[in-house]
Amino acid sequence: MSLGIVISNHNMGHKTVECLSSVFDSDLDSFQIFIVDMASSDDSVFLMKEYMREHAKAPSCSQLRLTCHDEDLGSCGGLNAGIRQALDAGCDYICCLGEAVTVDPTALGIMMRFMQSHPHVGMTGAKVYHKHMPHYIQQFGIAIDFKNFRANTLYADCADSPALPSEVYCDAVSACAMMVSASAVRAVGLMPDDNFLYWDDTEWGFLMKQSGFEVTALADAKMYHSANPMRRCDNTKVNYYLTRNCLNFFMKYTRPEKCMKMSIVLLRSIFESFYLHRMGHAHNMAQSDLTAMNDAIYGLRGMAPSSRILANDENGLGFVNFFEEQEAVYMEDDDPFLEQVIRQINPDIQFLQLPGKNAVTIVRCKSILGIQEFNYPLDFSDEVVYIDKAYRMLATREDAKLVKDYEASLQLFLYAMQPAVLRRIGETRGIEF
Fold this sequence. Notes:
Elements: E1 3-9, H1 13-24, E2 31-38, H2 44-55, E3 61-69, H3 74-88, E4 93-97, E5 101-103, H4 107-117, E6 121-130, E7 133-139, E8 142-145, E9 150-153, E10 167-170, E11 177-181, H5 182-188, H6 200-210, E12 214-225, H7 237-253, H8 259-279, H9 283-297, H10 319-324, E13 328-331, H11 336-345, E14 350-352, E15 360-365, E16 384-388, E17 393-394, H12 397-429
Parallel strand pairs: 1-2, 1-4, 2-3, 6-12, 13-14, 13-15, 15-16
Antiparallel strand pairs: 4-11, 5-12, 6-7, 6-11, 8-9, 10-12, 16-17
Helix pairs in contact: 1-2, 7-8, 7-9, 8-9, 8-12
């Protein structure tokens, strides 16, 4: 049984080299590597070629191949190009790795042996940790929730524990740490590449399960992802593709009798994001929300025109800046992960056991837009900040006023946009509403 490892790179050559180094440190007897570079404009190709020259004769690697494309194919397009090469080379199993991932020496062997002994499993993932906080899980499987119309990253930001399951049977796993069987790929097809970025792995896992294969994530297969959850992206690309592809997925696969509810739930989610960006004076990000929604409704797929991707102007909520300036805080509810995040922003900050006169009180909530009653006199106090699960923060009286106006604005938005979503579903799936 042979293993092919596929890595797609775009302007992250130094990270790809780190990923490759961890692969070569694995306890695998043999493997093949297929690297696909997608029009990198930095020194990625030079770095990867230098590394390949040094490891070309490694006894465990029977093939080390770099293919360079002159256009960005997106994460799914790049991985698909490598997967095709692995299939042509006769690989029985194919592992997709993200550039920012490093693998534990035993991880790939564990995944491959599991798939060999479980032929009904078509896709397997790893337990992926935050590299900068390695005791906390970044992802351990993905569950598609057709009741609330979202994809849930399982165990995200949870502290690792022996009490967690050793195997998670789920709906999908992240493409940054995924192994698939060649037989499943031939039966289901390649990763859906009209997503370009994001939701490609989730849709592929969904299609695997629809075809009768199981999807699992394995606790003993450990990998580490260097992406920082508080890192600010330079542009609106992530926001655009996540929004567009999520709406497209559920318009495409939701059962007809649930489409009315789905349209309301997802439009509410998009408007919530838009409203939060408006609160933060992030006009480009707000525009990205609406553009992504319209493109999903009108069927724009693949790589978006460059005019859709704008500079990220999201700085109004000021999470990082806010905590850089604080000397002491008090949290109403213990949240070890949030505490670690804040300490990384400001190592000198003090966490008090009781509220203090010169300390800001942190109140956790599900969503700052869902706050119905403020917990402090006069509805809001400058000594209190609300932080929700997505680390969005309500910290000013102006924010509080916008929150109170939110529901009325939402109802007008739903009235205007729901017919367009239902019309799109009807046209593409032949459903009447």
